[in-house]
Design goal:
The chain is an alpha+beta fold. The chain folds into 2 domains: 201 residues, Aminopeptidase, CATH 3.40.630.30; 140 residues, 3-Layer(aba) Sandwich (Aminopeptidase). The chain is built from 11 helices and 15 strands. The strands form 2 sheets. It has an 11-stranded mixed sheet with strand order 2-5-6-8-15-9-14-13-12-11-10. A 4-stranded antiparallel sheet has the order 1-3-4-7, with helices on both faces. A hairpin with a 5-residue loop joins strand 3 and strand 4. Helix 2 runs antiparallel to helix 9. It is globular. It starts with 8 loop residues before the first strand and ends in a 9-residue tail after the last helix.
Amino acid sequence: MPDGSGSLTLVLHKAIGEISPEAWDACAGTGNPFVSHAFLSAVEDSGSANARTGWLPQHATLQDAEGRVVAAAPMYAKSHSYGEYVFDHGWANAFERAGGRYYPKLQVAAPFSPVPGPRLLIRPDAGIGARELGGALAQACDELKLSSVHVTFCSEPEWTTLGEAGWLQRLGTQFHWENDGYQTFDDFLGALSSRKRKTLRRERRDANACGLEFVALRGHEITRQHWEAFYGFYTSTVDRKWGSAYLTKAFFPLLSERLGDAVVLMLALHHGKPVAGALNLLGSEALYGRNWGCTGDWPFLHFELCYYRAIDFAIANGLKRVEAGAQGEHKIQRGYLPKPTFSAHWIAHSGLRRAIADFLEVERLERLEQMEALTSYSPFRQED
């Protein structure tokens, strides 16, 4: 379908495999692995994102007259709101109680991954911006007679641009650790208040006094046996939290095969046997913590494997930050401070749009107040 500019055409693809990795990644860049062709293809080819699971690929590309892809968006037709981490169940329920049809909707996202980053992917030489691609997605929503398009965990510039174009804006909160030029973990500890510094040292000491060996494996260092163990950790965590195992067993080895050294699997071994694991992906500036799990009861193991070892890795590799996933106010005391996340929403129905706009205005003020309050619990020393 035309994108509205007269010179570009919007094409929707039923699989990421319809688009060449070179064409896609020329738009996505190399900074964030969650929008790479490798990650998205691993999600699809493993059977994690498909029509059966309610994540029907509808990847969008803008193509010029010669068929060159100049912009792209990882997009799915969703028959539910699970696996997104920006919750709109209330919007859907209200609309359907009023006689509307909320699903299917269009979701621009990295599936099952609450990781901030670019969502409207533009070639550097395209001569267009996020506004044009966002406009094409909104036009597609209207022409397909769908309820909405949701661009979740997008970058702040994308959020601002879409807001200026009439999209509804939503704020969320995550907790990120930032590297203030630290050369060692002790440098980081030195920036904390005395009481918090003692707490972290005690937690690390106790976690490392249990006879566990810790290793960080990358890419092809990770064997099938490692992934077998990790999948058990992953499903046990899902079972304890009454969630759904969105990712199939085939996903994890496929991920390390396709993303290589960008996959960082941190394991805790007891007598050589894995007893816990934390999966991370490596970007150009950040380490992104994703899934974790363990067997047995080990003091402070979650903090050590998911937070402190991630900080060690970030310092050793000169990374600017660690993003440890959704939720978790307990992360604050371990140096992970609240940061805003951004989502933009195109709502086709005018009545639903007004109701959601009113809700988001109140929610946004609450989020900002909450982040300010949470920041007051920072473990870092207060400068005089």
